[in-house]
Amino acid sequence: MDVDTRGENRRERGFTVSEILTVVGIIALIVLVTLPALGERYRGYRVRAAANDLVADLRVARHTAIAKRQEVDVTVRDESDTPPNEYTYTRSDGEVRTVTMPDLVQITSAPTGPFVFKQDGGLDGAAGTVTLQSRVSDQRIDQYSVTVATAGTITVEYDAVAP
Prior knowledge:
By secondary structure, this protein is of the alpha+beta class. It has a single domain (17-161), classed as minor pseudopilin epsh fold. It is built from one helix and eight strands. A hairpin with an 8-residue loop joins β1 and β2 (86-90). The termini are far apart.
C-alpha cells in the first residue's frame, strides 16, 4: 500500500477562482437577459388572476342566489367610481365581501347598476360586461372582458390591445 504522508504526490481537488468567476458571470448574464421577460409575464399574470377571481366570485354569487333562493347583488365599480377598481358581493355565509383590484389592474368599464342574480341563477335585468386592463409593456395592454349573460352564464375573453 502506497501512502504518501508528506502530500507531495497528492493532487488537490477544487475550482480555481477564474472558473468560479466565469460561472458567476454566466449566471448573471442569464439573469439580466431573462429578468425583463419575467416582469412582463408577472404583470400579465396579475390581470389574468384578477379576471379569474372576478369570474369565480360572480359564480359564487350566482350559486348563492340559487342555493338560498334569494337575490344576490354584485356591484362593480370601475376606475371612474368612488372608491374605484373594486367589486362587492355577498358570500353564501352572508358575509359581504369587497375585493379591490391589484396594483396596476384597472376596471375600465362596468355596468352602471349591479348584477342581480335571481333565484333561478339568471340576471334580473340586462346582460353586462366588465373590462379589466393592465399595461404589460410599452407595446401591449392585456384586456379581459368578463360577460354575464341574462341566463346567468359567465364568460371571459382575452385581448391584447395596443396602448
